[in-house]
Amino acid sequence: MPLNAWYAIPTVTAVKTADTNLVVQTEPPPLWEALCKRFIKGVLPKTRFTKCLQFLKKSMRKIKRFKITSRSREILNRLMRELPLLRRAGFQSQPEVSAFVMDIFKQIDPGVVYEFNQDAHWELDDQNILHKEMFSACAVTLGDKLTPFLQALPNDDKRTAAVTVILEFLKTAILFVADLIKEQAQKEECETLDLQFVYLPPFGAAGAPKMLRESIRLEKTVAQKALPTILPHLKAEKIDVSLTKEGSLLPPYTAVFFVPWQKAKKRGKK
Could you tell me where the DSSP H helices lie in the chain? Predict the structure, then answer.
């Protein structure tokens, strides 16, 4: 792997902002760079350099719980466009719907694991090889508290309304992580391309956000074969994500996707 590929793996820290949300921030990886420079200059022996890189690569895998903003007004406006559904669900007023959105928000416990990869060849089976030149692989979940919340709702229409809200929160979590990766790519004089989804939860009768409905997805059979390779690679169990025998993910509201990188195009002189 080229040395610039090692540099492309950022350190991630969490800081508390004024609104009490935990926000993950990326910072340059000075320790990686320092090790590489010492090795190139001949100061650091190859065996010691290799061990240091192996340790650092393991420690640089991102395992984070994070918070997202509720976007309560935006999601409320989105849900209020589904008036027939809301009436069937038993809602009587807008404040009641607003409280419902915030009740769901309190149940989410977002987590993410993501890792930069370069020139990866993942053998899925005898006939399928997943090859990506430069990308970040990501798994994002909203946690396991949503399932009992949905099960406790009194009717299917209220559950459909709830899933509509949950998918909006999933979209927010995905975009949050994608923006982090985009910022890091820019620091490495790269740019990110459209997300490529390996797995999204079933939408059912819920109104999914346009970003999820019209997303780029791996071909279904390839995606099913890719998940058993991607999840262990990411150590998705660190955020309690697992693959069922049926090919779905637990917790149910989890997404797995790639963020492709490419070298930024140089602008011509004016």
Answer: 3-7, 30-40, 46-59, 72-80, 83-89, 94-105, 146-151, 156-187, 210-213, 220-234
